[in-house]
Amino acid sequence: MDGLREVPANTAPGCEDCLRTGSTWVHLRACLSCGHVGCCDSSPGQHAHHHARTNSGHHIARSLQPGEDWAWCYTDEVFLRPA
Question: Which of 23, 43, 58, 61 has minimal Cβ neighbours within 10 Å of its Cβ?
Answer without folding.
Answer: 23
